[in-house]
Write a structure and sequence with these properties.
The structure is a single chain. A hairpin with a 6-residue loop joins strand 2 and strand 3. The chain is 48% helix and 26% strand. The protein has a five-stranded mixed beta sheet with strand order 3-2-1-4-5, with helices on both faces. It is of the alpha/beta class and 141 residues long. It has a single domain, classed as Nucleotidyltransferase, domain 5.
Length: 141
């Protein structure tokens, strides 16, 4: 069994996958689209990755405001997660992702990546941070 982590953004969707022991999250890819509302290819890519990695559960980052209220982006992520669950048939969990993109960006800054290089990987790193947070929370229960 593996778990997939998704960082859903306006034009991208970062993807991470757990190892089979559900201990670590690895960044896999960033799915890009040409228009924010054109999601068919994004869903198809997620379905394909679910089959390839034998994913049984999906964790979707939920970008709540710092005061714990919803934003327009939060509502879009909720709708996206519902569609992912419907399309894949997998249990889909919303997971607090506040500041994960900032955290991912800092990690990449420390690694010395250029702005362009960071843009290529920041979303999948954020997805890995979201998924790792979820995996770590399971250990404490």
């Amino acid at each position: 069994m593996r778990i997939m982590g998704l960082d859903f953004g306006g034009m991208t969707c970062g993807v991470a996958i757990s190892d089979e022991l559900l201990l670590t999250a690895q960044p896999v890819t960033t799915i890009r689209r040409k228009h924010e509302t054109k999601l068919r290819q994004t869903f198809a890519a997620i379905e394909e990755l679910c089959m390839k990695y034998e994913v049984e559960k999906i964790v979707v980052g939920l970008p709540k405001k710092l005061d714990d209220t919803d934003s327009e982006r939060t509502l879009k992520c909720r709708e996206f997660a519902e569609n992912v669950a419907r399309r894949t048939g997998k249990e889909t969990i919303l997971w607090d992702e506040r500041l994960t993109t900032v955290q991912a960006s800092r990690i990449l800054d420390e690694a010395g990546l250029s702005y362009k290089e960071k843009g290529q990987v920041v979303d999948k790193i954020a997805a890995a941070i979201i998924l790792q947070s979820y995996l770590d929370s399971r250990e404490t229960k």
